[in-house]
Amino acid sequence: MSFPHLLEPLDLGFTQLKNRVLMGSMHTGLEEEKGGFEKLAAFYKERAQGGVGLIVTGGIAPNLRGRLAPHACQLSFSWQVGKHKIVTDAVHEAGGKICMQILHAGRYSYHPFSLAPSKVKSPITPFTPSAMSARQVRSTIKDYATSAALAKKAGYDGVEVMGSEGYLINQFISSRTNKRNDEWGGSYENRVKFPIEIVNAIRQKVGSDFIIVFRLSMLDLVDNGSTWDEVVKLAKSLEQAGVSIINTGIGWHEARVPTISTSVPRGAFSWVTEKLKKEVKVPLIATNRINTPEIGESIIASGQADMVSMARPFLADAEFVNKAAANTPELINTCIGCNQACLDHTFSMKRATCLVNPRACYETEINFTPTTSKKRIAVMGAGPAGMAFSVYAASRGHEVVLFEAKSEVGGQFNLARKIPGKEEFNETIRYFINQIKLHNVELRLNTKLDAAVLANEKFDEVVIAAGVVPRALELPGFDNPKVVDYQQVLTGQVEIGKTVALIGAGGIGFDMAHFLCELESSTLQPDKWLKQWGIDKTYQNAGGLTVEAEHVPGREVYLLQRKTTKMGKGLGKTTGWIHRSVLKQHQVHMKTGVSYEKFDEQGLHIKIGEQSEILAVDNVVLCAGQTSNRSLVDEMKASGLPVHLIGGVDVAAELDAKRAIRQGAELAMSI
């Protein structure tokens, strides 16, 4: 066994967890869908079958006012128990254990009936909360206990009390949001009465044979957050109150520090869990950007924590633990931390899923059943769409031949993985390479699929996933060798000078600016990354913040866009602010409403409104989108065979691996 510490059971006294892996809480959106609990049961059942030691559900409100949104899920009444039992029965049938997370949103609620310790509006939600009366505080504590008792009745093995990320309990703990002058505010002892009384009330209601996990904010990453001494004090009080496990919470949602995106180093916050481990005896869980069994094993083996929490990695691969136990980690579909199909969907009120695994949360709808009509299928292009289709179609029993004109698979992912902070894209390529071998897909590198191939070999259908080509601009001087496209830069075909103008400020433009400015990826240097974002490992200041390190950009970069809208408006809902912050750190000049006139020996001539300007740049890099690579589509159709288009060749918008992989999966399911 290569991961002995990760796979070792954890004895909680009254019950035992079969390993040290927690599937962390994620809201999927199924909780609110019609018939969603049946789908949720299938989702959790697959993860239980996949070997995870303990599952924690998405947040369930203890009362109406605590809901995240008007129609969000709550557990407050006995008539609500039945649908939860569908989930717990499915998990137990698969040999798993599951806890329900109790989450009161407080001022983070997206509805006008929100309550908080004080009338202090959140910077990330539209509504100002009402301050809770002392009676409402007491009533809410009782609601937590009632919800926990109903969870036990529904068959849950325990509950997780959400006390971090800036939700209600965190709002009581912090002087940032607690401005009360009664017994629930003022001194730290008063402010932490709320979480302690909640745990006491729950333990009294559910008895001693029920898991209580407390999600403790160990690092607030906001001004006026908890000090380290306060975190330790609360942890000890929670231990005395009878919690079974303490889970690590990192950062409030309003914190201006990334905590789970792909640019965050792996295991970047395990040090703070280790810091607390010296203070309490209750088992501790490390969390955030733990996405491989190797990282989990290292954290536990080194004594930093007793368990590791992984949430999105179980969207990416339900069989994560089983594959680790079988010593085949190379077969794990690794979470790349992109947020595009999980958190971006959740915060847009859509069902969560996963960019690298479109079956996530669609277990009852997307399945690759064995075919009754085997076909020989030619696939053009081994980018994300082509690889996904090939693997899924081959898993159904089709004979698939995958043609790639270049010497390696990966397509646009081979470019994306070169951007600082996007090194995780290597893992998706590795996963598909192994799946191609596992499912006996015939891979032909350095080989173009053309009419001659189709004439000489027998195929039943053709799938074109040949991707995109960069869009060129026809302007005076743009035929100059100093005007290049983003692909030429990322593949090292051209050398770039010290001063550069980027035309196009979508995802490609932002990535290119980052690539040109950050010559060494801080994501691969955790201590440097922590300093970059002003995180203090010595925890001298409240909230764990310090002054951000000064940045010396590798180049002077101008990021230009034609539109007058906010720069980066089309970036990911939960990651766009990070990209903008990084470019600000690197002192990138951002200009909107730009018209491009020409390029000559003086530089790039532009106009903003009526004002003309010459940017004295060494190079211009075109990041103005792409066009579909349809050069061979007509030739393929002339063969008379059914032809399918997926990925960028179908729709050449911004590079969209989420859509490309999902299209590949849906076509493979139906072909």
Automatic annotation (TrEMBL):
Q: What class of enzyme is it?
A: oxidoreductase
Q: Does the keyword Iron apply?
A: yes
Q: Tell me the ranges covered by the FAD/NAD(P)-binding domain, including all copies.
A: 376-653
| Pfam families membership | Oxidored_FMN (PF00724), Pyr_redox_2 (PF07992)
Ranges where the NADH:flavin oxidoreductase/NADH oxidase N-terminal domain occurs = 6-328
* EC numbers for this chain: 1.3.1.34
**Superkingdom:** Bacteria
**Any one GO molecular function term:** metal ion binding
Alphabetical keyword list: Flavoprotein, FMN, Iron, Iron-sulfur, Metal-binding, Oxidoreductase
Cofactor(s) recorded in Swiss-Prot or TrEMBL: [4Fe-4S] cluster; FMN
GO biological process annotations for this chain's record?
fatty acid beta-oxidation, unsaturated, even number, reductase/isomerase pathway
Q: Which InterPro entries match?
A: Aldolase_TIM (IPR013785), FAD/NAD-bd_sf (IPR036188), FAD/NAD-binding_dom (IPR023753), NADH:flavin_oxidoreductase (IPR051793), OxRdtase_FMN_N (IPR001155)
Family stated for the protein in its record: In the N-terminal section; belongs to the NADH:flavin oxidoreductase/NADH oxidase family.
What is the protein name for this chain?
A: 2,4-dienoyl-CoA reductase
